[in-house]
Amino acid sequence: MNLQIDNLRALAEVADVTPEFAPQESVHRFGDGLVGVVTRPSRACSKVGVLLLNAGLTRHTGPFRLHVDLARTLAARGFPVLRFDQAGLGDSDAPVRTTGDRRQHEIEAAMRLLAEQTGAMRFVLCGLCSGADDAFHVAAVHPRVSGAILLDGVAFPTPGFWLRHVLPRLLNAGKVLRYIASRRNAGPALADFRDWPAKADARRMLSGMVDRGTRLLFVFTGGAYHYFNHRDQLAAGLGRAARAPQVALEYWREYDHTFYLRKHRRVLIARIEAWMRSEFGPSESN
Fold first, then answer.
1. Contact 153, 135 (CB under 8 A)
2. 3-state DSSP call for residue 23?
3. Region 71-80: what's the mean pLDDT?
4. Which of 163, 166, 171, 217 lies 20 to 30 A from 11 at CA?
5. In this structure, what are the phi and psi dihedrals at residue 135, rounded to the nearest 5 degrees?
6. Phi and psi (nearest 5°) for 102?
7. Nearest residue to 65 (alpha-carbon basis) of 268, 255, 248
8. pLDDT in tens, 30-50
9. pLDDT at residue 21 in the model
10. Collapsing DSSP states into helix, strand and coil, what is residue 163?
11. Collapsing DSSP states into helix, strand and coil, what is residue 272?
12. DSSP string for 167-227
C-alpha cells in the first residue's frame, strides 16, 4: 500500500515553507502488519531519519496531532520521518509475536522501511510516556540509533524529590486526609503503567549510550509531577552520564503531559526542531 497524500497547502502552513518545497507523505504497510506514514523532504534529504513511536494507546497521529505537525516540520527542515502504529495499536494488526523482543523487531522493521524509502542510515527515536520507554530501551542496544527524544521518560524519585513533593502537602489537611484514604484503597502504581528498567540497569544503559556518542533530549512536564520535580533529579537518579554534553534537558512544569495547549505543542516542536538541527544538521547528516 502506498497512498500519496496531496495536501501541499496544509503542509506548507504547518511547516512554514512555500508550497513547492512542502514535504511529501505516503502510507505504507510493512513488517508484521504494521502501518505507518513516511514524511519526506521535497529537497535534499538527511541521512538521519526520525521514528515517532506511539504514546500509550494513541495512534500514529499522536496526541492532538502532535506527531503529524512534528513530522511535517522536521521533514521541511530536511529530516525524513516515519510515524507508525506498533502492533495492536491504531491501524496496525494485532501482534503476531509474543516474545519480549517484539518492540525491537517492530522498530527495526520501521528503520528498514524509512531507509528504503528515503536513504536514511541512522535514526533518532522519539516518544512520549510509554513511547519514551520504548525509545530508551531500543536506543540502549541498537547501533543504528544515534539519538533519542524522551518526553516524560524515565527518571527516578530521589530524597530531594520526596522533600519537594511531600512537604507542601503536609500543610494541606485535605490532601493529607485524601492520602490516608488512598492508602486503604490503593490503585495502580506508576510501575503498572511504565516499562522502566531497574535503576542500576537504567544508569548502565544511559552510560553506555553516552559512551557510544548517542545524543539525548529529555523533556519533562508538569504531568510527571508524581515522579519528577527538579532538573537536578535526572543526574541524581541516572548518574553522571546525565550531565554529559550530548544530554540535553528541559523541564516545563506548567505544561501538561499530552501538550494539550496548541502554544505548548508549538514550543515543543520548535525545541525538537532546533535540537535536531544542532545535533544532526548538515555537518552531521552523513
1. yes
2. coil
3. 95
4. 217
5. -60, -40
6. -60, -40
7. 268
8. 999 999 999 999 888 899 999
9. 61
10. helix
11. helix
12. HHHHT-HHHHHHHHHHHHT----GGGT--PPPHHHHHHHHHHHHHHT-EEEEEEEGGGTTT
First to last CA, the chain: 29
Q: What is the 3-state secondary structure (H, E, C) of 72-127?
A: HHHHHCCCCEEEEECCCCCCCCCCCCCCCCHHHHHHHHHHHHHHHHHCCCEEEEEE
- H or E element, residue 164: helix 159-170
Average pLDDT over residues 139-157: 96
pTM, entire model: 0.87
* C-alpha cell, 36: 505507518
Paired strand residues for 252: 221
Q: Residue 60 and residue 249: Cα distance in Å, rounded?
A: 25
Q: Give the position of cell 506511539.
A: 54
Please list the residues that pair with 51 across neighbouring strands. Answer: 82, 125
The identity of residue 12, as a single letter, is A
Amino acid 113: pLDDT = 97
Asked if residue 8 has pLDDT above 50, the reply is no
How many residues make up the chain in this entry? 286
- Please, which residues have CB within 8 angstroms of residue 271's CB and are 6 or more apart in sequence? 217, 219, 250
Name residue 111's amino acid.
M
3-state secondary structure of 24: strand
Torsion of CA 52, 55, 60, 66, to 10 degrees: -80
